[in-house]
Specification:
The chain is mainly α. It has 11 helices and no strands. The longest helix is centred in the middle third of the chain and has 34 residues. It is globular and about 60 Å long. It comes from Brytella acorum.
Length: 274
């Protein structure tokens, strides 16, 4: 099958993600608000415990927070809405009849939706929290540049892998939705896992030392935590190449396991109609 079909699926979902400009602005305001609250909390903790020896400096913790907030919509919070609607109404049968690889079809759409939502917010927040904040006299609280040109290149590669990894996790939620015929389960499981294990609530390097290695080896760390730490030049178990290896491992493992699970689910699929 030629890649044109998958590029078409990607393009359609990308346009849908860019359609709601007011939602982008509203999301930007919300992320700025939560980011500012987190920054004030970090400033209070770091200033009252200057000798605690945290693995991230205050400046790094603030930059970590801004990057996490800008990439919130890149998290795999649940299934692709189109798959959820199709499973609920029975229209999923149309996807099964398409002369395409269903995994790649849904993966293209899932990746486009994630990027279509995340890229505009990330660009806007980077402008507001970076140069605009510095011009407003908030340089110490602003988004810092990459630690070095090498860190920027490693972070760019890692962010690309993180986006693919997030879309692959969404694929698991898609398969779950096809099995349960409802998107509710995927959101009930995906949202708390993604928010907690990606470092959105608290940067993973700031967890207790005994938990840090385990947390960086789980798949959700590869979506935003590993790319951000490479951006900051912060230490990672196994170094930069080891961190990229963790992302690649989960990407391959989830793709192989997900494809096998999808094949079993499709063979036993029962279609309902609303």
């Amino acid at each position: 099958m030629k890649p044109r079909a998958y590029l078409t699926a990607f393009g359609l979902q990308w346009k849908i993600g860019l359609r709601y400009r007011i939602a982008v602005v509203a999301g930007l305001v919300a992320q700025m608000w939560f980011g500012a609250i987190s920054l004030m909390a970090y400033a209070a903790v770091y200033h009252h415990a200057p000798d605690v020896g945290a693995p991230l400096t205050l400046r790094q913790a603030m930059t970590y927070t801004w990057l996490q907030q800008s990439l919130f919509t890149l998290l795999p919070l649940g299934c692709l809405p189109a798959v959820g609607d199709a499973a609920r109404t029975g229209a999923i049968i149309y996807d099964l009849l398409r002369p395409v690889d269903l995994w790649n079809w849904w993966l293209s759409a899932s990746l486009a939706r994630l990027l279509g939502n995340a890229v505009p917010r990330a660009v806007l927040l980077a402008c507001v929290a970076g140069p605009l904040a510095a011009l407003a006299g908030l340089g110490a609280w602003s988004l810092a540049p990459p630690a070095s040109p090498g860190a920027a290149l490693l972070a760019a590669a890692s962010f690309a892998l993180g986006a693919l990894l997030s879309a692959t996790i969404v694929m698991l939620w898609n398969v779950m939705t096809a099995r349960t015929l409802s998107p509710l389960g995927s959101y009930a499981i995906g949202t708390p896992l993604a928010v907690l294990l990606s470092g959105m609530l608290l940067p993973l390097p700031l967890y207790p030392e005994w938990a840090r290695i385990v947390l960086v080896l789980q798949p959700f760390a590869g979506i935003t935590d590993i790319p951000i730490r490479l951006y900051l030049g912060a230490s990672l178990p196994g170094g930069p190449l080891g961190a990229l290896g963790v992302q690649i491992f989960w990407l391959v493992a989830m793709t192989l396991g997900g494809r096998l699970w999808m094949r079993r689910i499709i063979d036993r699929l029962e279609v309902q109609g609303a």
